């Protein structure tokens, strides 16, 4: 168990190093980060001065080492737009994004798990058809479009919810729903297919044939085995929601990291974009690690194995 | 076939899978049994037809601006006319022809993006799976790294750096999507490599090139086609999303993402600017997802039997 965790932790650290390398070289892929970040109308002398100030004229190896050692102590440079440390700007936006993703995930679980269970236990039933159609819809509706349509319907026409911002408790409902829809469809499909798979296993047939209490079969034999892949999916999806809320936050003017990313790109504030990319990846990697741990706790094959 | 009466039975049994016509008929039967597959393929064909025949379908050039006819409503609402079935945008461009031409951008990005991703992924994954050991570890590391990143964020990041052009978009999706193809290929190759028929080919003295091309790659095609369908659908989604953020093809190109970005500005007063490109994306994506589900069932004989 401990060895399993340590090896996963080591892998995460390695992946984090990969993320830093990627983020560093992405900015330099065009060969000239200085003109990338300066406004188009800047004079060559201004660009040169900027290059000097940012240290882009130093050897690449020196720059990379500098970037790594600073990142190790949480220094991702200063945002060009705000002229303040990029990391603290990102951290300011974290709570809003976490709130949005958490509410969206809860909604997705509340819809996806019961419908998936119902479909898997009674394939072909009316409820199963409803679930499968919802699953398809969640997979096929672009969330940036759905977000606009829901504003039109529930904010402009019906006036049930605010169209944007984070001023009242119910502001979170529309953006969270949009963010959660695709996830609910994934959860639904996964739950359904796992139930179908588990249901036909030998140990379930044995449980039925020895006359076990059906409630015990459903709860202990089926649900528990469905929970294992589900936990892993939910962990991964939560990470995806934290890093993938850019459209939803932009459209609903939700003051989180996604909106900051969109703004930073508009300002050509690439140190801020870089900090966002690295920080979000760090959160996602940490989530994946936590998921692996939860997985091990749930699955005795890993808990006692190797 | 017209040989002795005794041999007709085994011959006809073999012939079922032999001629192309029979195979097509067999696939047709499988398709007909799965109605959602029929619906999906029809939706997708409709989009492909629209893209290919675009100049023959529309009456207006998608770039043609008629400022006197700007912001016209769709034909079926007050103020609309059948000359512009979906209405016009703020520059008086015909929305119907922009929507039809948008299919070209989406399908181009989807097709070439998947082609690039599948080619790179197939090569890299096959090498990793076939040779294993240190080569495998060297390839699998970066693949796991890329697949564990927040995908959308990095795509947006790189698109913002590279700038707006069709080639850049195809390159971005082709490269960033190849790890998925590599991972699937690697897994399949590992599975096939351990199979009895490869073992017998090895013991019969076949060289590795022959094993790779005659035994491994043909068996990979099924899973890869299925994956390609889903990935193409996802790419069309992401392209529209990038366009919506102003990071995909140049603003002058009629793409669904660019149309949505423009429609968003007039959401409450001219909602049809937003409605039609969104419906087009939905039709494409739903068609591809349904076709993909069907293909997965048809190409995997184990699932095919289970479904009956």
Q: Would you state the CATH class of the largest domain in chain A?
A: Mainly Alpha
Distance between the termini of chain A: 8 Å
Q: Which residues of chain B sit in consecutive blocks of at least 5 with pLDDT less than 50? A: 1-16, 304-308
Structure classification of chain B: mainly alpha
Percent of sequence in beta strands of chain A:
under 5%
Total domain modules of chain A: 2
What's the helix count of chain B?
A: 13
Q: Gyration radius of chain B, to the nearest Å?
A: 24 Å
What is the H/E order of chain B? HHHHHHHHHHHHH
Provide a descriptive summary of the structure in words.
The complex is a heterodimer of chains A (306) and B (308). By secondary structure, chain A is mainly α. In chain A, 77% of the residues lie in helices and 0% in strands. Chain A folds into 2 domains: 2-72, no CATH class; 93-267, MetI-like fold (Orthogonal Bundle). Chain A has helices at 2-27, 33-37, 44-54, 60-72, 86-121, 126-140, 143-157, 173-199, 202-209, 214-243, 246-251, 257-266, 270-298, 300-304. The longest helix of chain A is centred in the middle third of the chain and has 36 residues, at 86-121. The model of chain A has no long low-confidence stretch (mean pLDDT 87). Helix content of chain B is 74%, strand content 0%. Chain B is built from 13 helices and no strands. Chain B has helices at 8-15, 20-33, 35-52, 54-57, 95-131, 133-148, 151-162, 166-193, 196-203, 208-244, 256-265, 272-299, 301-307. The interface between A and B is large, with 46 and 39 residues.
What is the strand and helix layout of this fold?
The complex is a heterodimer of chains A (306) and B (308).
Chain A: H1 2-27, H2 33-37, H3 44-54, H4 60-72, H5 86-121, H6 126-140, H7 143-157, H8 173-199, H9 202-209, H10 214-243, H11 246-251, H12 257-266, H13 270-298, H14 300-304
Helix pairs in contact in A: 1-13, 5-6, 5-8, 5-10, 5-13, 6-8, 7-8, 8-10, 9-10, 10-13, 12-13
Chain B: H1 8-15, H2 20-33, H3 35-52, H4 54-57, H5 95-131, H6 133-148, H7 151-162, H8 166-193, H9 196-203, H10 208-244, H11 256-265, H12 272-299, H13 301-307
């Amino acid at each position: 168990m401990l060895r399993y965790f340590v090896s996963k932790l080591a892998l995460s650290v390695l992946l984090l190093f990969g993320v830093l390398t990627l983020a560093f070289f992405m900015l330099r892929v065009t060969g000239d980060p200085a003109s990338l970040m300066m406004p188009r109308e800047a004079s060559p002398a201004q660009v040169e001065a900027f290059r000097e100030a940012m240290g882009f004229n130093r050897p690449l190896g020196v720059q990379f080492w500098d970037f790594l050692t600073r990142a190790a102590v949480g220094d991702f440079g200063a945002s060009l737009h705000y002229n303040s440390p990029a990391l603290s700007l990102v951290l300011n936006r974290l709570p809003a994004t976490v709130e949005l993703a958490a509410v969206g995930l809860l909604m997705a679980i509340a819809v996806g798990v019961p419908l998936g269970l119902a479909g898997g236990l009674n394939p072909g039933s009316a409820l199963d058809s409803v679930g499968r159609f919802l699953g398809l819809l969640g997979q096929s509706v672009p969330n940036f479009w759905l977000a606009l349509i829901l504003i039109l319907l529930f904010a402009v026409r019906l006036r049930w919810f605010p169209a944007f911002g984070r001023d009242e408790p119910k502001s979170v409902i529309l953006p969270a729903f949009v963010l959660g829809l695709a996830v609910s469809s994934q959860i639904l499909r996964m739950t359904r297919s796992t139930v179908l798979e588990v249901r036909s296993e030998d140990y379930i047939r044995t449980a039925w044939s020895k006359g076990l209490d059906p409630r015990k079969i459903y709860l202990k034999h089926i649900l528990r085995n469905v929970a294992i892949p589900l936990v892993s999916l939910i962990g991964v999806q939560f990470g995806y929601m934290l890093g993938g809320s850019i459209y939803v936050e932009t459209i609903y003017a939700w003051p989180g990291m996604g909106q900051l990313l969109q703004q930073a790109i508009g300002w050509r504030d690439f140190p801020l974009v870089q900090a966002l990319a690295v920080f979000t990846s760090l959160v996602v990697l940490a989530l994946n690690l936590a998921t692996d741990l939860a997985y091990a706790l749930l699955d005795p094959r890993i808990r006692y194995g190797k | 076939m017209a040989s002795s009466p005794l041999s007709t039975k085994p011959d006809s049994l073999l012939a079922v899978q032999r001629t192309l016509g029979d195979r097509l008929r067999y696939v047709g039967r499988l398709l007909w049994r799965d109605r959602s597959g029929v619906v999906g393929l029809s939706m997708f064909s409709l989009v492909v037809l629209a893209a290919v025949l675009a100049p023959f379908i529309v009456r207006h050039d998608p770039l043609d601006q008629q400022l006197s006819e700007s912001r016209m409503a769709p034909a079926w609402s007050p103020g609309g006319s059948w000359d512009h079935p979906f209405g016009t945008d703020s520059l008086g461009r015909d929305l119907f022809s922009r929507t039809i031409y948008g299919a070209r951008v989406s399908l181009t990005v989807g097709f070439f993006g998947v082609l690039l991703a599948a080619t790179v992924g197939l090569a890299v994954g096959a090498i990793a799976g076939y040779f294993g050991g240190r080569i495998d570890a060297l390839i699998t590391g970066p693949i796991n790294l890329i697949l564990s990143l927040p995908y959308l964020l990095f795509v947006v990041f790189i698109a913002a750096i590279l700038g707006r052009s069709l080639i850049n978009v195809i390159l971005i999706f082709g490269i960033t999507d190849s790890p998925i193809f590599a991972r699937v290929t690697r897994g399949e190759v590992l599975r096939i490599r351990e199979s009895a028929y490869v073992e017998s080919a090895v013991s019969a003295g076949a060289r590795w090139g022959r094993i790779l091309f005659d035994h491994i790659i043909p068996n990979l095609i099924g899973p890869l086609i299925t994956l390609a369908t889903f990935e193409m659908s996802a790419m069309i989604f992401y392209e529209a999303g990038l366009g919506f953020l102003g990071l995909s093809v140049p603003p002058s190109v009629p793409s669904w993402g660019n149309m949505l970005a423009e429609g968003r500005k007039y959401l409450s007063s001219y909602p049809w600017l937003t409605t039609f490109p969104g419906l087009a994306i939905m039709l494409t994506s739903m068609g591809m997802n349904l076709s993909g589900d069907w293909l997965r069932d048809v190409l995997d004989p184990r699932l095919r039997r289970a479904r009956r």
